[in-house]
Amino acid sequence: MATNNGDVLMLEAAPEATKPWASAANAEVIDALPYIDDDYGNPLIKAEVDRLVEEEMRRSSRKPADFLKELPPLPKFDFENCPVLGKEYERVRAGKPPVRIDFESRYKLELPPASKKNDDAAWKQYLQKNQRSLQQKMIELENLEMMSKQGPELWRQNNHRLEVFLTRMQKLAQEQNEEIEKVNRERKYHQQTTAYELNALSQEWRQLCMKNMEIQSACAVLETQIDSFKREAAERGWNLEEKLESVKPL
């Protein structure tokens, strides 16, 4: 209530609550009732709300650029057990293009240089190297043949596992959505049920404010009349204090 020298003037809104960011727990206080508050549909109120939100964002210590600063830092990857992966990671970080694989030299049959055409040891060395390369190609062909026979079934099994995983994730997502919908329905029900009581209390608050203002106005009129009577008594030489003391209380 607002007072003036101890006199009650009118009922006012409750005092502002403690700022949530000043509390020890940094709790956020949300008092919105979205299912029954329709004031935001008014363009004037919407503009004022948007202005207050922008002002609060400007005064806030949290900025979009550092909203993750309270989280622990990301671990540093050193790739000690996998230097090849570490080298590739550094390449991607540096924005360099991937290394091109030279298939021509990989599958090319190598011969001794012209200076060693008559060298039997050089021919044996290059022959063994080409034989190893040929054996590797034969193993790769066997792997491709095995993949062509067994690969489709392995892919089907892998796809089945992925489908099972997808079904499980979809079920979890559906359960979460149902929980959210349940909470929203309960909030809507409670807010709409309480809206009648809130409207009645708001109407009562307005009536009390109007009544207090009427009382204040009547008190002001009475005070004016009393001051007028005091001036008139003083002009006639009457001592009102003595007369009031002589009056016996009821």
Which descriptors would you attach to this protein?
SPF27; mainly alpha; two-stranded antiparallel sheet; Pre-mRNA-splicing factor SPF27 homolog
Structure in words:
This protein has 250 residues and is mostly helical. 63% of the residues lie in helices and 3% in strands. It is built from five helices and two strands, in the order ββααααα. Strands 1-2 form a two-stranded antiparallel ribbon. The chain is elongated, with a radius of gyration of 44 Å. The two termini are 32 Å apart. Residues 1-24 have low confidence and may be disordered. Residues 124-193 form a coiled coil. Its main location: nucleus. It holds the Pfam family BCAS2.
Describe, in short, the structure shown.
The protein is an all-alpha fold and 250 residues long.
Q: What is the strand tally? A: 2
The percent of residues in helical segments reads 55-70%
Mean residue pLDDT: 80
Which percent band covers the strand fraction?
under 5%
**Rg from C-alpha positions?**
44 Å
Structural class category: mainly alpha
Task: Output the helix-strand order.
Answer: EEHHHHH
- Span between termini: 32 Å
Main sheet makeup: 2 strands, antiparallel
Low-confidence runs of at least 5 consecutive residues? 1-24
Family: Belongs to the SPF27 family.
GO biological process, one term: RNA splicing
Pfam families: BCAS2
Coiled coil: 124-193
